[in-house]
Design goal:
Elements (H helix, E strand, L loop, with lengths): L17 H36 L4 H53 L16 H31 L1
Helix pairs in contact: 1-2
């Protein structure tokens, strides 16, 4: 006797493992901001070299460069951070969801609830880990099915 898989319901909550997801998003944002800062420093260096070589207008360019770079860094950060937040939530959703599912599945096993196949939504990451969990719990499912079959035949015999 095989158990029917649970119907999949679309996740409504995007931050499933909030702390984990926010930590990953903060790492993404930190790396992006460091890259922006590095790019701004390189641009400033190149503009300073250009200003020094210019026959005319070099001092004006050198004087205006820091302000322009700060404005550019601020504007691009204001545009980039919300984008990183949205993309980060979307990207971590495909990892945090399966982690939450594994957590619930393993707690169910620990509590002795019926053993069913571990299933993830299409597009989720960690599908291979789900398959390993299914392989590891196959003996439990076989024992459970045999027990249910024996109980069913005992009821029919009575």
């Amino acid at each position: 006797m095989t158990t029917q898989p649970r119907p999949f319901v679309k996740r409504r909550q995007r931050l499933i493992k909030t702390r984990f997801q926010l930590r990953l998003i903060a790492i993404f944002a930190g790396i992006a901001l460091l890259a922006q800062l590095f790019q701004t420093l390189l641009m400033g260096s190149y503009l300073a070299q250009l200003a020094a070589r210019m026959p005319a207008g070099g001092p004006v360019l050198a004087e205006e460069t820091p302000g322009v770079l700060v404005q550019t860094l601020a504007a691009s950060s204001l545009l980039l951070l919300p984008l990183i937040l949205l993309v980060g939530i979307s990207a971590t959703f495909r990892i945090a969801g399966p982690l939450y599912r594994f957590d619930q599945y393993l707690k169910g096993l620990k509590n002795g609830s019926e053993v069913e196949l571990c299933r993830l939504r299409r597009g989720d990451q960690l599908q291979d880990l789900c398959q390993v969990i299914n392989e590891a719990t196959e003996p439990l499912r076989a024992r459970n099915a045999a027990r249910l079959a024996a109980e069913s035949s005992e009821r029919e015999a009575a």
